[in-house]
Amino acid sequence: MLKKANKSRVDGRKPTELRPITITRGYTKFAPGSVLIRTGDTAVLCTASVEEGVPEWMKGKGRGWVSAEYDMLPGSTSKRRQRSRKSVDGRATEIQRLIGRAIRAVVDFEALGERCIWLDCDVVQADGGTRTASITGAYVALCDAVRWLQQQKLITKSPVIEPVAAVSVGKIDDHILLDLNYAEDVGAQVDFNVAMTASGEFVEVQGSAEGETFSRSELERMLRLADSGVRQLIAVQERALKTRPKKRGGT
User: Fold this and answer.
1) DSSP letters along 193-225, please?
2) What would the pLDDT profile of 144-186 be if each residue is shown by its tens digit?
3) What is the pLDDT of residues 48-62, one digit of tens each?
4) 112 neighbors 161 (Cβ within 8 angstroms)
5) What domains are there in the chain, each with its CATH number?
6) Strand duo 33-39 + 42-52: pairing
7) 64, 116 in Cβ contact below 8 A?
8) 85 by DSSP, 3-state: which?
9) DSSP alpha helices (H): ranges in the chain?
């Protein structure tokens, strides 16, 4: 039987509490959208670049595209991580596909026109939840790139349909916890990553157990907790988008 949610966490948070989150817009100089998102000790730089034209298979359809890339910088973990220059990093490929799917779910491609927005998510520091932080930060970077397109009079209507964000949730020592850090993630009995829109629709649910099973009622509890976390993250996104971004390139 699942225990009551009174688990004492390594960082002192309540079971249903997100890590402290900050979103700094205008973090770099050249990209139309650039965000540094921090969730606890995880930090991800998300940039949104605009490229005129679309992949060959989309040409002539009057529709745009959004694509994502993800990587972890060598010093982002306690042991130096090698750059994936010569080999295919399966984990990074999986994550960047997830980011792309999550953001494309809230974009009107016809309103974007025949151009591509590239979302690059580079992990500066990793302490769990890098893929969910990347989605949450990439959405804000996308919104700034769209504002830039409107300022340049390249589009007349915003292609952004609604906000999207993502959060992790898991079962650790028979307790359900929100927004896992690395220490919690590596010892989780069950680990889920959930991407949702502001309207409460799921974009993606990635989850599995390690060495055991989980019940339908536990799944429902985790999804409800993820829903609560995503709503809090979307509120943070909306507040960030209402503030004036820092001078480009500032820290």
Assistant:
1) EEEEETTS-EEEEEEEESSS---HHHHHHHHHH
2) 999 999 999 999 999 999 999 999 999 999 999 999 999 999 9
3) 999 998 888 888 888
4) no
5) 21-79+91-161+225-242 (3.30.230.70)
6) antiparallel
7) yes
8) coil
9) 90-104, 109-112, 130-151, 182-186, 216-242
